[in-house]
Design a protein that fits this description.
The protein has 307 residues and is mainly α. It is built from 13 helices and no strands.
């Protein structure tokens, strides 16, 4: 067994982190989209909007457990971008993190499609649409309510994602009131739940470009066609750009109103999103010296940002 483990064990740290981001996002989306599929195809007889919110919140909680110790469980390009801006994540890793997150969401959508294929076909009569009374594309990606304009939807996403980053940064700020050790995943899940039950009715609170783009690309090639990009007046770009702007806005608010004012030199959230010290191997990699420089050049050094 040890020989098999050595044979398949990935040595490159960046690759391990990308695999963790992929799997974590996959787990999050499996629970979330699975709940939407159950509620939709049953005509809300087997669940409702609250059950969808709970499923996404629990999905985030377990996803953080799955990937947090390896990659930091960003699970969201908006989170990764904010941590890069804060200097807590390397910019060169950002594209691969985002690709992994989008891929995880895409694969989760494909899996839910397989699991609920017959239910979806029964519900829509084999007519796969993004709009209308029997629309099913919303099982996978988000779409606006009929009354929502693109501008209002964009504002919705800026505010919702801003709240997400503001609260996540607070949970990781050791100089404020951080989450108790071990409870970070649960509390991050509760933040998602709070946002869902407060800001969910307009457009399903995507908050996450990967959460929306991956499943949208899947539905495009799985039979829904170009309508997934034209529905809602060309809605598709709002859950991509809005969360990025919102994440940076929430990050800036927390920095300007809270973190920059902590007393003492160099105090803040530290090197991780939760304010926890990095694992010993990562602390070693952060030191100057031949070993640290060499391993950083190999792409194996990284600061883990636990949520």
């Amino acid at each position: 067994m040890e020989k098999v483990q050595r044979l398949f064990q990935v040595q490159n740290q960046l690759l391990r982190q990308c695999l963790a981001e992929l799997l974590g996002t996959y787990v999050m989306m499996m629970f979330g989209c699975g709940a939407v599929a159950q509620v939709t195809t049953s005509g809300e007889k087997k669940g409702d909007f609250l059950s969808i919110n709970l499923a996404f919140a629990l999905g985030v909680t377990f996803a953080v457990h799955v990937s947090g110790g390896v990659s930091g469980a960003h699970l969201n390009p908006a989170v990764s971008l904010s941590l890069c801006v804060l200097g807590r994540h390397q910019w060169r890793r950002l594209p691969l993190y985002i690709l992994s997150q989008v891929t995880g969401a895409f694969l989760a959508a494909a899996t839910i499609y397989v699991v609920y294929y017959e239910a979806i076909m029964e519900y829509c009569g084999g007519n796969l649409t993004a709009t209308g009374p029997n629309a099913t594309a919303g099982i996978f990606a988000t779409y606006p309510s009929s009354y929502l304009t693109l501008w209002n939807g964009f504002v919705d996403q800026v505010i919702g994602t801003g709240m997400l980053l503001l609260c996540v940064l607070a949970l990781g700020d050791v100089n404020n009131s951080p989450a108790p050790p071990g409870l970070e995943p649960v509390l991050v899940g509760l933040v998602v739940l709070a946002i869902g039950i407060s800001f969910g009715s307009n457009c399903g609170y995507p908050l996450n470009p990967a959460r929306d783009l991956g499943p949208r690309l899947f539905t495009y090639i799985a039979g829904w066609g170009s309508e997934v990009f034209t529905a809602g007046g060309g809605w598709w770009w709002v859950p991509l750009l809005g969360p990025l702007v919102g994440a940076l806005t929430g990050t800036a608010l927390y920095q300007l109103l809270i973190e920059l004012h902590h007393p003492g030199p160099g105090l803040g959230s530290g090197d991780t999103a939760s304010g926890q010290a990095p694992p010993p191997e990562e602390a070693e990699l952060g030191q100057t010296g031949e070993k640290g420089d060499e391993r950083q050049e190999e792409g194996e050094a990284c600061v883990t940002h636990r949520l």
